[in-house]
Design a protein that fits this description.
The protein is α/β, with parallel strands linked by helices. Helices cover 33% and strands 28% of the residues. The protein has one domain (2-127): YaeB-like fold. The protein has helices at 21-33, 35-51, 106-121, and strands at residues 2-7, 16-20, 61-65, 68-71, 78-84, 91-99, 125-127.
Amino acid sequence: MHVVDELFNDVECATRVWVSESAQKDLKKWGKKSQRDRDRFLAKLKAVAIAGFELHEGNQVRDEEKGVFRFGIQDSLFRMYGFYEQDQNDSVVFIATMMKRGTDRGRQGDAIVEEVARIRDKRLWQRSEYEGYPRPAQYD
């Protein structure tokens, strides 16, 4: 079971963002290597969440296949893979991340898309609870 925590719960977002514990660990790990790049990535993700993911589909938000999409920004090879909760644009769940090695996602990316789709289809995820409220995500 993948437990997801809410990211950016300190601001009103048109699209709420939920992140798995493993994706949070990857964000922390990436931040240790390149905090400036990670912070730029998260700032863009926050701006997209505030505005709404549907406004950025085709740009930072790209459909991969099987109902899975990825979030990425220009000049970064770091990607987050997830899905819309209940196929609605008001809540997204990111399960996995990947640092691409080049321009194509490759076999590793294909495997991530398959796994994220399986997790969504079998509902192998749940929101965390922290004193009755969603637990805030940890990435620092």
